[in-house]
Amino acid sequence: MMRALAFLLLALTAMSAPTPATAQRFSGNYPVCMQQWEWGGASYISCRFSSWEECRATAAGLSAMCMLNPYVQRPPEPGLGPRPR
């Protein structure tokens, strides 16, 4: 009887364990992202803005901020290549 109770307790504990969290991905190749906070402390990031002005207009009135997309593919800046000898 005790073994059955212990097994049942173990099974219930395993079934009620939370699922692992998934990482949020930065999507797209847009240069500006908006991070928005929701009630309860959750936040999400949306990278779909072409300019700061577009992001700031969307974020107006929300609990949000705009930031550079750290994963966007930017063209190399001219003049920063290797120096000739």
How would you sum up this structure, described in words?
The chain is α+β, with helices and mostly antiparallel strands. It contains 2 helices and 3 strands. A 3-stranded antiparallel β-sheet has the order 2-1-3, with helices on one face. The longest helix is centred in the first third of the chain and has 15 residues, at 2-16. The N and C termini lie far apart (84 Å).
Biggest sheet statistics: 3 strands, antiparallel
Q: Could you give the order of strands across the largest sheet?
A: 2-1-3
Distance between the termini: 84 Å
Q: Which value, in Å, is the CA radius of gyration?
A: 23 Å
Helix content: 25-40%
With helices defined by DSSP (H or I, 4 residues minimum), what is the helix count?
2
Let me know the average pLDDT. Answer: 80
β-strand percent reads 15-25%
Write the layout of secondary structure elements.
Blueprint: H1 2-16, E1 32-37, E2 43-49, H2 52-59, E3 64-68
Summarize the structure in short.
Helix content is 27%, strand content 21%.
Characteristic key phrases:
elongated, three-stranded antiparallel beta sheet, single chain, 27% helix
